[in-house]
Amino acid sequence: MKENKDNIDKWLKFLNPENLKENLMFSSLYIASFEAFKDYVVDTVKFFFNTGFADGEYTFSEDYSTKVKALDKSIVKATLLWLQDLEAIDAKDIETFDSLRQYRNKLSHELMTLLFEGLPEELPEKFVQLIALRVKIEKWWIMNIEIPTNPDFDSSPEIKEDDITTSSQMFNQLIFDMLSGDEKKASYYQNEFKKRFK
């Protein structure tokens, strides 16, 4: 009897349009953010080794193959291990990434089942961890690679990590504001865009 009631409750939740939209939106946002994280990490490090452009393609130094790609068969994992060697992240961060990857795979491969059964309770926490890991790498990269190699910063006052707001932080804030239930927040960016470009 209890099992039958549980099934009815699951169907009622699944058939609730708002609940279904919210679950689809959140799971899609997590998957998209995870893929964007992988692209950011791989491309940022890869282009650190860029040596130019020839015959319609970018060229990269041999160091990219020997110092990064050689670290693991997965280019994402290899890149994270290279960042660990530079102390941008630590072993715990790589464990976190592995856990985040498992959640991404679960959402991708079992989405229809999860929409009916309910999304994992830990998913919001995992999403926060994903954002935090990307921001950690972004801030380290800005502080240790971009600022020291850019002469425009030579005469600037000392910049502290807390002073930096990364592009992903701004983008995530924009997304969360637009998806919030606050109509004023949700429409703010579109209204401002219209004012500037109409």
Give a structural overview.
- The chain folds into 2 domains: 158 residues, no CATH class; 34 residues, no CATH class.
- The relative contact order is 0.10.
- The protein has a two-stranded antiparallel ribbon with strand order 1-2.
- By secondary structure, the chain is mainly α.
Characterize the overall form: globular
User: DSSP helix count?
Assistant: 9
Helix content: over 70%
Give the terminus-to-terminus CA distance: 61 Å
Number of domains: 2
Number of strands: 2
| Beta-strand residue fraction | under 5%
Strand order of the largest sheet: 1-2
Low-confidence residue ranges:
none
The biggest beta sheet reads:
2 strands, antiparallel
Average pLDDT level:
82
Q: What key attributes describe this structure?
A:
single chain; 198 residues; mainly alpha; two-stranded antiparallel sheet; 73% helix; 5% strand; globular
Topology (SSEs and partners):
Layout: H1 2-14, H2 17-48, E1 50-54, E2 57-60, H3 62-68, H4 75-85, H5 91-109, H6 111-117, H7 123-149, H8 167-179, H9 183-197
Antiparallel strand pairs: 1-2
What would you say about this model in short?
This protein has 198 residues and is mainly alpha-helical. It is 73% helix and 5% strand.
